[in-house]
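Case study 2.
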Amino acid sequence: MPEEKTDRLTPARLEAFSDGVIAVIITIMVLELHVPGKEIATLAALRLDLPLVLVYLLSFIQTGIYWVNHHYLIDDLDQVTHGILWSNLALLFALSLIPVATNWVGVRGISPSSIALYAALCAFPALPWMVLSTLIQRRSKTPPASGIVKQAASVCLYLGSIVVAFLSPWIAIAMIALVAVVWLLPPRKIVELSRNSSHPPL
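Prediction:
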């Protein structure tokens, strides 16, 4: 009787690989925060670095939101397919560009062009995410924890922020932050599962 292969790519392996890549992405972002030289007073240095710190915080939250929702998504998966593999890699590639966008703002400052680029690179992961979510939904026959309306609204806000950045960079940043706030709220499905697990039937 042939032995069953145990080295196939399981959802757990896919999740562990993705966790490692996202951890590196976050680490790269924090390494871009540099301490100003001694010739600059502390308050002045904080004032100069505050925009970069705020953009870094926003980038960190966005990456973290993808990480959290990636776990929700993989929980519904029983087997990895070829399409899921490549769409997951595409998502990780798109997320790896967020540190580049963050550092770009740090070097160029808050300007229409830098924030437009930042908004574009923040919007980029939404495309492979929607593909990955659709493929997993078809495979698992389970609706994703985050609804389609939520995903579509986020894409619209991201794309709108690219245009708005040329009118007001700070409003564009606020639009990106609004997407983060929306995704910080846990999906109804996850809330219900948490309630059921905390109150098991007698």
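The chain is about 75% helix and 0% strand.
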